[in-house]
Batch of 2 targets.
Target 1
Amino acid sequence: MTAYNNFEEHIARINDLCCVINLLNWDSRTQMPPGGTVTRPFQLGTLSDTAQNLFVSDQTIQLINAAKTEMDAAGVHPDTCQYRSVLQAEEAYNLSRRVPSKVVSELARLKPVAESVWVQARKDNDFKSFAPYLETIVELCRNTAESIGYSDHPYDALLLRYEPGMTSAKLKQLFADLKQGIVPIMEKAARSQQVTPEFLKRQYPVEKQAEFAMSIAQQFGYDLSRGRLDVTTHPFEISFTRQDVRISTRYDAHYLPMALFGILHESGHALYEQGVDPRLTRTVHTTDLLDLYATGGASYAVHESQSRLWENMIARSRPFWKHHFPQLQAVFPTQLGDTDAEGFYRSVNRIHPSLIRVEADEVTYNFHIMMRVEIEMGLISGEIKVRELPDIWNAKMQEYLGITPPNDSLGVLQDIHWSGGQIGTFANYTIGNMMGAQYFQAAHAQVPGLAASLARGEYAPLLNWLTENIYRHGRAYSPGELLLNATGQELSAAPFIAYLNNKYGELYP
Ligand code: ZN
């Protein structure tokens, strides 16, 4: 099929550019000396423009149309992988064409500037200096939403980019269900007032932290012949095809859980990327054509469902520590000499309302997300003004978590997302929690003896199920299709609430 091959070759070249953009981003965040910040934005800008021009070009739509004509003539079914590739590219193309290039380039130009202003503003606790940049970003995102179009709420148009199938109305319902389920857990936890045990804050040499966490990551199945670990300020996973999937972390030599669970979280993302079917390499199914980003995941939320499944449902579980605590204790014999598997398990599963999202436990974390999503919806609809943000933030923190940040650095200025023009991505973390629980439940129902093999530290049965049902498909299916095919269910908060009740009901009776 000549026309189809031409189409695939065109997308493969866009994917190559996306991989190089990813590689430059990886370099900026792990290797680049500070001086590089002066010229790196130009390099990234040139490459993004090149990828953007290549995709949103007449050539793309001609190749799409030619491939469709050819497949129709040959009687290829629209449900085949090839036909779906072309339809997905067409959908992304039409969506991209709707956003004026002026908005795209203005946002791209503003991003690095706004990010550096945000870094300084957070340092100086000075929201006012960041506010004008955020106002422009919100305006550009509102323009984007208007250009894409929506039927109910403008936020729906932004959600569509990151979480196809999700709407504000669905989100509100899911969040309301979840809130009802987790408030009682939080109330019970608040009565117990557990403090962080002193043994977690002893001296833990960072090389040893990396060594232990990476040995677990490899037991999960992270293949280091196609992966590596580096140090960064904001941990992330990034891939340049399934052949090269990297993770990064940060260390605190006086707090063991940060890098330990951070590395296992990013390893979960990496397992997803490494598990993509090799035949999907350099295709539509490993390219986010809207964001022009190389990824093998179906969406942000599906990706997050996997990092959280491995980090929380596996690595923060009692069977995990029953099996692995002796190994951890052997690496840190003096630091952990006076505790046991049960003590360690309990210490890394405390529920405690905190100011900072990324440090939150798996229960209260979801409230950090709900308030951000409410704020984003208000900003995009125009009901909330940027200048009112610090007050609104503090009021919502009080409402949801019962605490008020002492300053904006620990409040509204804590996250990088808005400075990078990302409005509409926070929800994915909590959707990911819900999906993760649904997938985990389905794996237990479908894989005989799964709980017993996990208790023995055997992760291949779980990894194989996840690879078969999720990882190998890349972006070939929508998040909703993927979930329905694997679990027989629509997205729901109930399995996540059941998981939390089961775990924390016992820890906080
Ligand atoms: Zn993540």
Target 2
Amino acid sequence: MPSPDYLTMHRRSLADPADFWREEAARLHWETAPPTVCDYANPPFVRWFAGGRTNMCFNALDRHLPERADQPALIAISTETDQTISLSYRELHDRVNALAAVLQDHGVGLGDRVLIYLPNIAEGPIAMLACVRIGAIHSVVFGGFAAPSLAIRIDDCQPKVVISCDAGMRGGKVIAYQPLLNEALRLAASKPLAVLLHSRGLVPLELLPGRDFDLDGELTRCAGRTVPVVWVDSTHPSYILYTSGTTGKPKGIVRDTGGWSVALLHTMATIFTGAPGEAFFCTSDIGWQVGHSYGVYGTLMQGMTSILYEGTPVRPDPGIWWKIVEQYRPTLLFTSPTAIRVLRRQDQAFLHQYDTSSLRYLYLAGEPLDEPTSEWIESALGVPVVDNYWQTESGWPILSGFPGCGSLERKLGSPGRASAGYSLTLLNPERGEHGETKGILAIHPPLPPGCFPTLWGDDERFVSTYFAERDGEGRLVYNTFDWATMDDAGFVTILGRADDIINVAGHRLGTREIEEAMSAHPAVAECAVVGVQDEVKGQAVVACVVIKTDHLPADETARLALVTALQREVDLRVGAIARPREIHILAGLPKTRSGKILRRGIRALAEGRDPGDLSTLEDAGVLAQVRDAVTQH
Ligand code: PRX
């Protein structure tokens, strides 16, 4: 299906959504064609292609067998264990069938949840595909999350089965998963029927009789079994992916089946230009949204080869990704601005040592892309950078460049224009620092196919969190919580979050989650966490704490010990990714007269900016203390 130019496509998607998406839906295999396109009878809830029946595993694997059984489907490279596993479509299909059979033997069926706690290894996509094959709902939890974070997710989605392994590795360090998982299962009220554990040979496993099973033994037992796909309604949830919100409780983003599959295939044509048979190297972990969309489903549904990567971009040396590009010749590379900033600091000879000429485009998303980074990598690789902006909630790019629609039109500093189906507006527009109009980016519902239909088990929170605002004309809108500017041609520039979300290296963290973890330490009376600009990671976590008088450190050694103990608290409760870069001990936190912590003021001072209007501040002296603390650092 040739794609029209961008403007024609976007205009049509809004003017005639039913026709537009009916045509797009033809990219997918439907066992039963959808009788309807968009059911928006109950705003803001929308049901795309309701009544149509399909299956994501069928579209990702079975559908390609006649033509590409021997083509690699998945190449999982680990520079941590020095292993590469290459699976053809036929082999991946066989592995997925065996695991689907194991899941069925353990009582997993339509609508049951399966929690996947694995590193970025082949078993992850295999487990995900096995779930959707039988209509089970997977929830992948990023391997870097600590036991209490895992326990909250277990209690929220109540999995029947958990799939995990002995250990993950990062930067050469082995992270044993079983102690984390056992602790999470002890903390959680919901108890799974079975825990299936894969052994990578990194750490010995101890199986709890009756609950824990050796996954590898189970797979051998079920090898060769074929499990028929379960055709599910387009609106059937395919997975739940947790993401940080402004409260301590993460939000279970629900994904449908048909709408998202159609959206992914649409993006493969218009944004990614990926042809069947080509390879797509997506460095995102499967525990994040980008990994779901382009590390697994979008890529496989398109009949491409997915290159999965466990490791850092600089080990064994900073040429590793370019070496992979030379060896496997992907046409598309998707990573984060942080990764590129890390590589930019390294000796550039590493980049020029390898042949990267297979690459057509480089996709970057997850956090703001600064111009020097974008320009550097574009000239170093000699391919255009396609910045794209989206959220776990949307499941696919909201803003992007569209190289698949004729020519790639871009504006420096902007991730581009609205994707098909997105009608954008700015809320509470005001004059920005440079005379431009800025406001909070919002979307007129219905949200396009593929966006989250609700939060898991919490329709009320879905509405009250995301649909609380109205636009200037009183119309219902979806709030992205991102500050943005938009020009007359529709190019949007993202300025940063309007809520308390911190974005560290493209990973969303809620200030509340981290504050709650630190408050668990007996010495802490109060604390405030903010995200401040960081040269490499985009943002870094900075914490201000008030210590109970009887716990105040007596000297510098005691202070350092306390800071380390607080960092450890965050490591253990949220995960090392959320560990504060700085912890400042203060006598008080800056608060408004109504008692709200002025995080905005702390952030401004930590970034060396003017904290702005502080007329609501209760005690101006406290802010002077914050300034001293953060600038001394
Ligand atoms: O603040 C925006 C930022 O990341 C948030 C969404 O993060 P997450 O749910 O983890 O989804 C990531 C999927 C790519 C957004 O609300 N963000 C994402 N992409 C960009 C971005 N900020 C600026 N430019 C981007 N390209």
